[in-house]
Specification:
Largest sheet: 5 strands, mixed
Number of helices: 2
Shape: globular
CATH topology of one domain: Ubiquitin-like (UB roll)
Bound molecules: FE2/S2 (inorganic) cluster
Order of helices and strands: HEEHEEEEEE
Radius of gyration: 19 Å
Distance between the termini: 57 Å
Helix content: 10-25%
CATH superfamily of one domain: 2Fe-2S iron-sulphur cluster binding domain, sarcosine oxidase, alpha subunit, N-terminal domain
CATH class of one domain: Alpha Beta
Strand content: 25-35%
Structural class: alpha/beta
Number of strands: 8
Length: about 120
């Protein structure tokens, strides 16, 4: 916004963003990060530094990684901000981790969570 409260008409993309206009990465001046591998139900998935577990799963086309206790209905991320708890997943043997908040780390073993995630 300009001093009068309106949007500046002569705004231009930052110089280093040219060639990438219109991308989120260009807006923040970001650069690609190192890739690493995590495992989901025994399947290797590529991850990029800074991604949450949910972002890694979404990037691989996986939209559900939990089943509800009563009906066994599939669940994945819903709110994406840590409020709904729909995205619970087991990470490195620890159940009930919110995939939208937990950062993925190299070598993580992520598994589908059934019911409460605890042994009966
Ligand atoms: S998607 Fe709602 S808490 Fe993770």
């Amino acid at each position: 916004m300009n001093d009068s409260g309106g949007v500046a008409r002569n705004w231009a993309w930052p110089r280093k963003a040219r060639g990438h206009e219109g991308t989120a990465r260009a807006l923040v001046g970001g650069a690609p990060q190192a890739e690493y591998t995590v495992e989901f139900d025994g399947r290797p998935l590529r991850a990029v530094s800074g991604q949450s577990v949910a972002a890694v799963l979404w990037s691989a086309g996986i939209l559900a990684w939990r089943r509800t206790r009563s009906a066994g209905a599939p669940r994945g991320a819903f709110c994406g901000i840590g409020s709904c708890f729909d995205c619970l997943v087991t990470v490195n043997g620890a159940p009930n981790q919110r995939a939208c908040l937990v950062p993925a780390r190299p070598g993580d073993r992520i598994t589908t969570q059934e019911g409460t995630g605890h042994a009966r």
